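Sharing a chain and its predicted structure for anyone who wants a worked example. Both blocks are below, sequence first, tokens second.
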Amino acid sequence: MQPIRAILAKAEVTEAQWRVLRVLNEIGPTDATEIAGEACLLMPSLTRILQGLEEKGLTSRQPHPSDGRKQLVSITDAGRALIDAHVEEANQIYDELERELGYEKVSTLLDLLNELSRLDR
């Protein structure tokens, strides 16, 4: 994780904020429940993370079109620019990890981490 943390420090975001931005960049506007599931975060943590991202201008919230109790969260142009500026370097680190450990081990590790995150809920 140290090389990834260096990238995130340059980007001035936390690991959790990066995960949220990546989720929003990949799936588009969505509600907090889906973000929490995709980013493997608990809702109380996600609430704080979304506040920080919105304060930085990296995300925005709008009323949900069909459910007045929810809000849709979107990545802003600034959020996309941040992802674009750092995603290649992050992917290179992941690729290097995969070369060193092999696809099977990395895949197993990610599966186990996802399983572990579900236990925290």
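Comments welcome. The radius of gyration is 15 Å.
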